Amino acid sequence: MNVSLRQLRVFQAVLEHGGFSRAGAALGLTQPAVSRAVRELEQALELRLFDRTTREVVATAAGLRLQGKLTRVLDELEDALQAARLEGAQAHGVVHVASSPTLSASLMPLLLARCRQHYPQLRLVLHDQVQRLNIEAVQNGLVDFGLVVEPDAATPLESEPLLEDDFWLVCRRDHALAGQAAAHWTQLSGQPLVLLDHSSGSRRLIDGLLEQHGVDCEVAQQLGHSQSVFRMVAAGQGVSISPGLAMPLPAGSDLRVLPLLPAARRRIVLIKRPHRSLSPLAQRVWRLALEMRRELAQAA
Fold first, then answer.
1. Helix, strand, coil proportions of the chain in percent (round to 5)?
2. In angstroms, what is the C-alpha Rg of the chain?
């Protein structure tokens, strides 16, 4: 037997309003849609619920018996659904999210604000750590989900894209490239580079782009935080390739940011363990993060 809640509500409305057309008007359905729902219910139950004439629709004895039991059941179901809605509006508990320092500083404040607005009783705990540790935390179930640079395709995780983030050249204002409107990747050949180290999710992508464009250069310094990279560039240690979300530059720094051509981007994604459902609370936070996509795209 395959009976839907929609069919039962339509059946009840026909009884309450005394006809298919009036029931359809009350439910926002067409008369044919109401007739179809009732016919499908009758077929599923193998019962005739209404006697139809050209002038009226009258419940059969079986239809009246069903109504007597159904009214109480639907009322109880409505109470249960209303309780679930209230629970969602007043969700309380803890959700753990892993994120790298750059993303923690740029994206997580917005997500935290959204959680506070929609679920004031929910506590969102941020695990601010490098990409490798974030992936391990998700895989091992130490956090509910993560916000990371898209991992290698071989990494066994489920992911959902959130936004794309451009790579930029950062150099001193007295550097030879600083006067250009943009810089080409090939112009980096021979330049000392100051980059994030391999604990960063972006470093693998940057190394691949340098190889793709045939750039031959020395990595003069490798550091764990973007602000440290910028200060090394300001101190004359070289130029850097930086994702846009790592901005802004340190206050008062004498640095310039240039687009790199051809444009290259990294993808920021939400990750979770494969074939595992999130808890109801974590699912709410995940949905809030996905709802930020349009706003982030407009701001990019």
1. 45, 25, 30
2. 29
| pTM summary value | 0.67
Q: Which residues pair with 96 in a beta bridge?
A: 125
User: How many CB atoms are located within 10 Å of the residue 12 CB?
Assistant: 17
Strand (E) positions, 60-182? 93-99, 122-128, 145-149, 158-172
For 188, residues 6+ apart whose C-beta sits below 8 A from its C-beta are 169, 210, 215, 217, 239, 241
Q: Which residue, among 137, 140, 24, 197, has the nearest Cα to 148 in the 3D structure?
A: 137
Mean pLDDT by 10 residues, the chain (300 residues): 83 87 89 90 88 81 85 79 61 88 92 91 93 95 96 90 95 96 97 95 95 96 94 96 90 91 96 91 92 72
Question: 219 has which bridge partners?
Answer: 193
Q: Which residues pair with 57 in a beta bridge?
A: 52
Task: Provide the token pair at 169.
Answer: 């050249």
For tokens 């846009």, what's the residue? Answer: 244
